[in-house]
Amino acid sequence: MRGRLGRVALLQSTDRPVGTAQLREFAAFFADEIRSGKYPFVDFDEDERWHQRLYRDPRIDIWLISWLPTQGTQLHDHGGSSGAFTVLDGSLTESVPSGYADGRVRIRDIERASGDTVAFGRHYIHDVRNTGTEAAVSVHAYSPPLSSMTFYDIRAGDLVAVETLATDDPEPDVAPRLAS
Questions:
Q1: CATH 3.60.10.10 fits 4-166, yes or no
Q2: In which residue ranges of the chain is pLDDT below 70?
Q3: Cis peptide leading into 144, omega within 30 of 0?
Q4: What distance in Å separates the CA atoms of residue 72 and residue 112, rounded to the nearest whole number?
Q5: Distance between CA atoms of residues 36 and 33, nearest Å
Q6: Which of 29, 67, 83, 86 could disulfide-link 136, Cβ–Cβ 3.0 to 4.6 Å?
Q7: How many C-beta neighbours within 10 Å does residue 143 have?
Q8: What b/e string do you get for 59-76 counting C-beta neighbours within 10 Å, with b at 16 or more?
């Protein structure tokens, strides 16, 4: 992993493309900055996930998100953006669709503990939620910055796109869905 100065140089170089390895580094870098107290404004909201943009330029978008127990997203992609997230505090459950020999989509749950960083490409679909009993906090990096998100259901074993929203916010208002 690059040192702190290498990560800062990557952040300041707006003419270089941002791949998943760099997104992983950005998420970890901002997580370190938050742990050191540079961003002391993490908040929690019982009605919805609290979130705050930390940084944005033409090629990258960084967000801080808090998760109270039972809060989560729905199955979604990031509209062609690659991404990464680091769990700062608590733990999160990431649900990822995966195919099986019978061709039906199943959901695989992966526990992401404090300190874990996950990077993903442009076509990644997942659901993230706090299934624990303690609050969780995470940092998310996207490149290019978010411009849309598509939400999915699993119907009769198939992954089905049900809504695409134009958004630059990783927490858009979306009606809850039940997978069938």
A1: no
A2: 1-17, 173-180
A3: yes
A4: 14
A5: 5
A6: 67
A7: 24
A8: bbbbbbbbbbeebbbbbb
